[in-house]
Amino acid sequence: MTKTDVEKIRKASRSSDKGPWVDWEEEMWRKCPIRRLSKYLPLSAEDRRMVERDDELTDFEVQKHAAIQNIGDATALLGAPEETSLTSQDESV
């Protein structure tokens, strides 16, 4: 695969700017050609499950980061009180 091919895959990814493409970029560059090649190799059912499970784990990480962001957004929308510093608490005593 060429660099252009891998970049095209990255751009199509839901997590191109976060998750594994940021945290483990070098591994993703290795994974792309191997995944493409695996489509042409005779794989056992167990091997196919391992490949699918890897995708599920990657998707889970993306979903986890999105959920954390959504919690932060919801907290801001609900107007959760901001933490006060110790100096402002000391002044009221």
Q: Give, in order, the helices and strands.
A: HHHHH
List the total number of helices: 5
Low-confidence stretches: 84-88
Q: Compute the gyration radius: what is it?
A: 21 Å
Helix share bin: over 70%
Report the mean per-residue pLDDT as an integer. 76
Strand content: under 5%
Q: What best-fitting shape do the alpha-carbon axes yield?
A: elongated
Give a quick account of the main beta sheet: strands, pairing sense, barrel closure.
Answer: none
Structural class: mainly alpha
Number of strands: 0
N- and C-termini, Cα separation: 67 Å
What does this structure look like?
- By secondary structure, this protein is mainly alpha-helical.
- It is built from 5 helices and no strands.
- It has helices at residues 3-12, 20-23, 25-38, 45-77, 86-92.
- The longest helix is centred in the middle third of the chain and has 33 residues, at 45-77.
- The termini are far apart.
Can you lay out the helices and strands and say which pair or pack?
Blueprint: H1 3-12, H2 20-23, H3 25-38, H4 45-77, H5 86-92
Task: Offer a few descriptive terms.
0% strand, mainly alpha, 93 residues
In short:
With 93 residues, this protein is mainly α.
